[in-house]
Amino acid sequence: MTTASDPSYPAHWEADVVLRDGGTARIRPITTEDAGRLVSFYEQVSDESKYYRFFAPYPRLSDRDVHRFTHHDYVDRVGLAATIGDEFIGTVRYDRIGPDGRPASAPADEAEVAFLVQDAHQGRGVASALLEHIGAVARERGIRRFAAEVLPANTKMIKVFTDAGYQQKRSFEDGSVHLTLDLEPTAESLAVQRAREQRAEARSVQRLLAPGSVAVIGVSRSGSGVGAAALRNLRDGGFHGHLYAVNEARAPGMEGDLLDGVRAYRTVADIGAPVDLAVIAVPAHRVPDAVAACGEHGVQGLVVLSAGYGESGPEGLDRQRELVRQARSYGMRLIGPNAFGVINTAADVELNASLAPAPATARGRIGLFTQSGAIGIALLSGLLRRGEGLSSFVSAGNRADVSGNDILQYWYEDGATDVALMYLETLGNPRKFTRLARRTAAVKPLVVALGGRHTPAGHLVPGTRLPESTVSDLLRQAGVIRVDTVTELVDAGLLLAGQPLPAGPRVAILGNSESLGVLTYDACLTEGLRPSPPLDLTTAATPEDFRTALTAALASEDCDAVVVTAIPWVGERALADDLAEALREAVTEVPGKPVAVVHVELGELVEALSAARATAAPPATAPPPASPAPRDRTPAAAPAGPPTAAPAAVPDGRIPAYPAAERAVKALAEAVRYAQWRRATADAGHVPEYEDIDESGAAAQLAALVTRVGEGAALTLDEADARELLGRYGIRVLPTLPAPSADAAVRAAGVLGYPVALKTTAPHLRHRADLGGVRLDLTTEAELRRSYEELTEALGKPSELLPVVQSMAPRGVDTVVRAVVDPAAGAVLSFGLAGVPSELLGDTAHRLVPATDRDAAGLVRALRAAPLLFGWRGSDPVDTPALEELLLRLSRLVDDHPEVTGISLEPVVVATEGLSVLSATVRVAHPPARTDLGPRTLPSY
User: Fold this and answer.
1) Which of 278-282, 291-295, 604-608, 685-689 shows the lowest mean pLDDT across its residues?
2) At a CB cut-off of 8 Å and minimum separation 6, what does 876 contact?
3) Closest to 68 measured CA to CA, from 91, 45, 100, 44
4) Taking the complete model, does pTM exceed 0.70, yes or no?
């Protein structure tokens, strides 16, 4: 008998999932304690669904059925249930069978599978989610195939199987459809899974941002406090749906009376109408009762403004975990706790369920996500002050449930959002974030400011375990525009939201100040742009002079972007409006290139440029009321990327203005680099296949090696095992022979052949040629003996130095190639030049595994010291194609075999022809769980 408290109960199979409609459910193993739930569930299933499940009328379950469906060994017989609250909404079970179709045990690797979903929950994706999870369980238990018998009329269930993306066989036998599914994940099954994940998570966010009705729980009668502020903002923001206030202190019989102009009730249950979203603003100890009331009333989602959770210490963190569990048990998702709130400026919603102070946020094309409320206020104020509006805003507070990943899923398909801005204190799940960021960045710019890089002691937001340089490289690889400050976040957002992407790095500079033009020119060079000499219009320039010069620059084929610099005219207030109009006219006449303005003490010009939305010509056709398609942001002359709508020029005549040349040029440079990434990723490259790779041999070798490793431990392979494993992937390590004495060194040189190298391998001297532990190009026995004597006299006894003899490699550039598996980000491939560049200066580049041929080429060229590989100062270029092949082979090895947790090849000497790996370190361990390849789940608490 197995219950949830028994040691044999597989608790790791429990998971929360987001369903197709955005609601949540919990999937868990069925236990002997579920008999009553199973009977109740079955009673709610229609006769038709029962017939489809059992192929005959089956009005009720017998005691024997209930016993069989609730007693499992979790190996050969497994049952899972999808639950909401304490009720089953769907079940799935498998029974292992042999070749004859009868019950069997391992090594039989096939199982019969069957589903049943409550009619009220059909169409929500319950069966698809259950199939993903039961498939993962089956693979864990050694089952490789599922067999299913389905009646031809049961088209919904047939579709669940056929749409899963697994390799399958289908036949018609004895009046039923016989399906066989190969459970090995395929590219298609993974794509199906991720597409379902995207749709479900996007829908769950949409339910939070576009509710038809909102209740604010915790509104005081006095009008003070967080709840009252949230209610006022909702009311004054013009929310289009039904709005309710909940105040437990209201006297009985006053339900429905007005509170601050809004219908007020003592409890959610008293409202008597559906509530889609609840904003909770009561003390933390009263939140559980409020959540329970919302769940019982059928509320779809929560925004929890209440504080006193993870930010307050261990007890608060426990309350936070329980809050998430409670909300999900009712199928609700939540933003918060300790949230600042959400805003949706869509014309048919106008939701301001936040604490954002007046004036209200304007409608725009920027989506904004923050964890910090204080940063959220700063960003909202900065955007508003500079005339920019938002499409949506989410400040998630402690981010206990809805995270930045969920918001990315929503923004990806949100036609109202053209640019995504995110302030993150942690990456959460970096592997998933980089995957979603790459997909989002392919269709719209994603700008991220990452805080928490240097977490102070006692701060409850944990810093990432990844080195800062690695994080930056991985984000850049994913197309993320990484900035360092919230000011840069706003600066980049303004330019990207209002201007087309540049086709290249050529910049024209014009203005009425020679000095300001020179500053802008220098800033362009610093950012790697290619500026033309500034055009000085002199301080006597009129707005018409600016218009003429800007029109000519935009029409020129020699520039991709223009920076206009402006200093004030003495006593000429009206000229600011005239200059803004002149610049708009030029941009309208010659569209297609980005323009930024640098001003000095011209606040009036900033207002005039940002207020251009009121005077810009309206679009030729109004956008449809539903979510419009995102504007095409593909730069001019770029290869075709992901499908988007027809290109648009400046949407409303606004031109971003900056008070410093460095800020304008920094934003422009980020746009240039992003546009280059978009063009480059139009051809994403491929992972090459090498015929000489022995994948099965490596798998067998690793299977034997990990038997020597305890759980949670790692094993560093000896030289012979490391050389053998790498050799199976075509990576040859030059052999070394031990030299415990001078005579042994001579014998080793005789085996290897002169010339040879003599070097120490003691840990404190390893890779430290600067300490004299290496002697090269020893061509005779006499040179070898003399070097051996000098080495031992200078550095210590042979037993301390552990000297070895190795064949000489051709001269070249010493490099370092590494691959490491990070628990959060996955496998990361790293490359740098050996010695000072990588160790002292941190000049190392990184890419996620599996690396494509394009990734490998970019990795080699990403170093600041890369010119040393390509013939710097007249030296011979080295064999970079051989180096790129080495990177790709190492990437394949780590990607194919999760037992490999780390590889270091140091040094790798890259010569003019070929390369030599002189030393290799390989670490192996039991393979960690790959959550990104498993079934869809929400983070557990």
Assistant:
1) 604-608
2) 912
3) 91
4) yes
